[in-house]
Amino acid sequence: xxxxxxxxxxxxxxxxxxxxxxxxxxxxxxxxxxxxxxxxxxxxxxxxxxxxxxxxxxxxxxxxxxxxxxxxxxxxxxxxxxxxxxxxxxxxxxxxxxxxxxxxxxxxxxxxxxxxxxxxxxxxxxxxxxxxxxxxxxxxxxxxxxxxxxxxxxxxxxx
Length: 159
Description:
about 0% strand
C-alpha cells in the first residue's frame, strides 16, 4: 500500500503544466467574471444574490490562496492531496447552488422583460443580458471546479 508523499503535488512553476492545477487560471477568470457581473448589476432580491456574491468572492479568495500555497511549495505535507479534493468539492457544491439560484432569478427577470415593468425596456434588457452572462460564467466555473475535483481525487487515490 502506497503512502502519500510530499512529491505527489506539484510546486513552483510545475503548477502551470500539471493537471488539475492548470485549472487554477480559468477558475480565477470565470469566478472573477461571476463576481463582477453580479456586482455590476441590479440586484433583486438581495438575499439570494448575496449568496451568489459570497460564493464567488469566497472561492476567488480561497483559490488565490490555494494557488499561492502551491506556487510557494507549502503543500508538501501528506494531508494536502486530501485537502485539495475537499476544498474543490466544497467549491463545486457552493458554485452549483449559486448557479442554480442565479439561473432561477435570471428566468424571473426574463419574464419581467417580456411582461413590462416600470424600468425602461432597454434597462431591463441590459440587466437581463448581464444576468445571462453571469449564469453562463457561473456554470463554467462550476464545471472547472468539478474537473479540478475529479482530477485531484484521481491523484489522491493514486498516492
